[in-house]
Structure formats: structure tokens, C-alpha cells
Amino acid sequence: MASLFTDLLGWVVIATFLAGAGVEYVRRHRVGGEAGALATLRRRLDGFETPPERTLATAGWVLFAAFWLALFPHFAFTQKSYVEGVLSLLAVPASLYAGWLLWTGRDSLLVLSRAVAAMGIVYFPFESVEPLKRGLVLVVTEQTGWAMAQLGYHPTRVTGPILGYHNAYRFVTAEGHGLVFEIVLACTGLGSMAIFAGLIAAVRAPLGRKLRGLAVSIPTIWLLNIVRTTFIGIAFGNQYLQLFVDEVLFLFGSSDPYMVSFFLSDRVISQVLAVVALVGITYLVVRELPELVTVIEDVLYMVTNEEYDLLESLDLPREPVRADGGGSDADER
């Protein structure tokens, strides 16, 4: 992550959303005499005029807005990733709007709130625990090198200047200039996998369908990510995209002409195609988990201020889906 501050803020966001999900669970489930303390807690929580899970989740969205605002300079100026920079900046008012809608009664957003917490639980351990990060980065590095070799490219594997692992490849141009392509955590596809894992975990649906949703999304993202890193490595290492050099250098605030192929392959082509791929994967997952339609409809409402009924449009069964994004309590696992 960008800094210790954003790491800590991220954990606070996760904890706040988790607290809201925990309170919601206690209030939603009837507990027997053998769990008298939980029963007492549930009665106390039911006495609040404003549901406490709504209050906690709203606070989570406000903190989430602050989190994205803190990340914006890192994406826009440090990484020079304008797509991620713009998205992080847009996430600030979007998070505040989600919090406001939830506070004023759109309780279906509790599903998205739970999803954000689950996403963080998947992502942040790899960000914070060095052995996990190192292992994931090195696996992606190994597979990227293998894929490049299948296409006839054999750069030298070296120690990366950023992370210090054996996680980079050194190319040599025809002029003898050395170029180092390093795999970092952002190159592993972890962020996209965390998004789908979080969404799938957040909805209330039978375990079997949740596992099918994971089977559709996670391997697909992993494979496409290896294709992405292979493409970027080859394009950058062999300087295949030296197009509009002056314009690209100006746009990304760089004076190094050797970086043009990297900027175009990674910051432009790969990130745009990633958005397209995520839309396609979302459609495939929704076919397995119609409950996710609740989240998509909430997002569309936030963007357009109009209600949508996607179940009919996508020809999906209506019965399993509730206002809070789950099936009947009997279906839950």
C-alpha cells in the first residue's frame, strides 16, 4: 500500500464494516437459551431507533472515502497510473454517496458493505504479511517467465530493485541498454480476485453456488493476469510500443523514452482491457450467483439515480434474491 497510514486506515475500514456485519448477524438470527448472552445483546440492539448495523456501515463508508482520498496521490503521482488515480478520486464521492443512501434507508447496501470487508480480509494479509506477499509475487514471476519463454523470449531473471526478491527480468535492447521489468504485488491480480471473493462471500446463497462462482472468477482472473504481465514484459523489454513518444512522456510526466512502451502496455492498454475483462467475468459469476444482482443494481442506482431490474434483463431466477442480497434463510450455509 502507499504508506503505513493507508494500511492502518484500511484495517480500520475493514473493522468498521465487520462490526456492522456482526451486529446485523446478531439482529437477524434468533439465538436459543444456550446462547443467552447473544440473545441479550440482540434485544439491546433491537432497542436502537436507527439500526446499529446501518450506523456502523455508514461510518465505514465515510472512512472508506478517506482511504481512497489518501491513496489518490500514490496512484496519480507516484505510480503515474492515471486510470487508477481517476478511479480512486471518483471513489471518494461514490463512497460518501453510498453511506448517505444507506443512512437514509437503502439497506440493500449492507451487502456491498459486507463485501468491502471481505475484500479487505482477502487483500490486506498479502499486503501486510511479508511471507504471503513474497510467495505470491514469486509465483507470478515464475509463471510470467515461463509464458515469455514459450513465446521465444528469454530475459535474465534478476533481483527486483523495488521489493528485493528474485522477481524481475532484465532485457537488453539492440543498442545494449538494459531494461528491468519487475513483478510487484499490483501485478499479481490480487486486487481483482479480492473483489470477486468479497462479493461472493457477502451474498447469502448456498455454499455450492458460491464455490461455482469462485471457480468461474478466480482461475480466469489468474490466467488473464499472467497473459497481462507477459504482454507488458515483452512489449516493454523489446520496446515494441514506441509510439507517440513525446506525447506519452508528457502525459506521464517522464523524460525516459524507454518507458513509453511500458506506459502504453501497462497504464493504457492493459488497464482498459482489464475493465472489459472484469465486466465479462461479472456476467459469468452472476449466472451462478443471481444474488449479486443486488450489488450491481445498487451501483447502477448510485451512478444513474434510477432503479433497475436486472433479473429480468439477464433472464435469471427471481426467487433466491432478497432485498438484502440473499436467498431464504433456509438456503444459507
Automatic annotation (TrEMBL):
Chief place of localization: membrane
Transmembrane segments: 6-26, 56-76, 82-102, 109-126, 179-202, 214-236, 268-286
Claim: Protease is one of the keywords in the record: yes
Keywords tagged on the record: Cell membrane, Hydrolase, Membrane, Protease, Transmembrane, Transmembrane helix
Subcellular localization(s) per the UniProt record: Cell membrane
GO cellular component, one term: plasma membrane
InterPro entries in UniProt: ArtA, Exo/Archaeosortase_dom, Exosortase
Record has Isomerase as a keyword: no
Record Pfam families: Exosortase_EpsH (PF09721)
Membrane topology: Multi-pass membrane protein
A GO biological-process term: proteolysis
Molecular function as annotated in GO: peptidase activity
NCBIfam families: exo_archaeo (TIGR04178), exosort_PGF_TRM (TIGR04125)
Protein name: Archaeosortase A, PGF-CTERM-specific
